[in-house]
Amino acid sequence: MHGTIGPDTGATAAAPDAAHVSGVDDSAPISRIVAQVAAAFPGERISLGDMATAFGERAFGMLLLLLLLPGLLPGMASVFGMPLLILGIQMGLGFRKPKLPGILARQTIKRADLLRLASASSKGLSRIERYVRPRAGFWTRPYGERIIGWLTAYVALMLILPGPGTNGPPAFGNIVMALGVIEQDNRTIGWGVGLTLLGCAFATVVLGLVVWLGVEAFSYLF
């Protein structure tokens, strides 16, 4: 997905009714839902706003997942960190569905790349989906989802701030967390929260050392 998101140039089709895209099965595995949504939009590019509409109740989890995967690429973390920060804050404030700012909602991804993502990740996702299933618990309740949102916002800050090796660990945990959010699986979310906390702790320590070394170097020079 490197370099595939950009401003809407009018190539996207009008979004179907917000309720549900025809043919999208809300209970389908994640990879199949991505493929179905991509197939529902005949235009060359699909906007983030259209995808938020199509994913319905799964919009937060799906958008987080789609933003986190390319965010792992070198040099792309800061690009996807800002929309991730906005979504995390909205979840933290208790929004039930994302309300994307116009400038973000108009950002688009190539439909072909979305299909390629679904195809390339289908094997890996299918393995994970054997263990991921709806399980109610603390993390699937409103206050649990708010904690998830603020954790996501912190991960976004780790992606935005420059630091050696600070993107991957927190992003990986957040991806696991997003998978749990999509399927409303309390256990998977719990694992994701633990991995995210460890990743954020690592990234925070590294960034703290970078700042400390920078201050020490500045003091030494001046």
Key attributes of the depicted protein:
mainly alpha; two-stranded antiparallel sheet; globular
What is the structure about, briefly put?
The protein is mainly α and 222 residues long. It contains nine helices and two strands.
N-to-C order of helices and strands: HEHHHHEHHHH
Percent helix range: 55-70%
Amino- and carboxy-terminal Cα gap: 44 Å
The percent range for strand residues is under 5%
Poorly predicted spans: none
- Determine the mean pLDDT: 77
The largest β sheet comes out as: 2 strands, antiparallel
Helix count, per DSSP? 9
Q: Tell the overall outline.
A: globular
Number of strands: 2
How many structural domains can be distinguished in the coordinates?
1
Class by alpha and beta content: mainly alpha
How would you write the strand order of the largest sheet? Answer: 1-2
Assembly state: single chain
Task: Give a written overview of the molecule.
The radius of gyration is 18 Å and the shape is globular. It has helices spanning 30-40, 48-55, 59-71, 77-92, 102-105, 111-129, 142-160, 168-183, 186-221; strands spanning 45-47, 108-110. By secondary structure, it is mainly α. Helix 3 (59-71) packs antiparallel against helix 8 (168-183), helix 4 (77-92) runs antiparallel to helix 7 (142-160) and helix 8 (168-183) runs antiparallel to helix 9 (186-221). It starts with 29 loop residues before the first helix and ends with a helix. Strands 1-2 form a two-stranded antiparallel sheet.
Fold topology:
Blueprint lengths: L29 H11 L4 E3 H8 L3 H13 L5 H16 L9 H4 L2 E3 H19 L12 H19 L7 H16 L2 H36 L1
Antiparallel strand pairs: 1-2
Helix pairs in contact: 1-6, 2-3, 3-4, 3-8, 4-7, 7-8, 7-9, 8-9
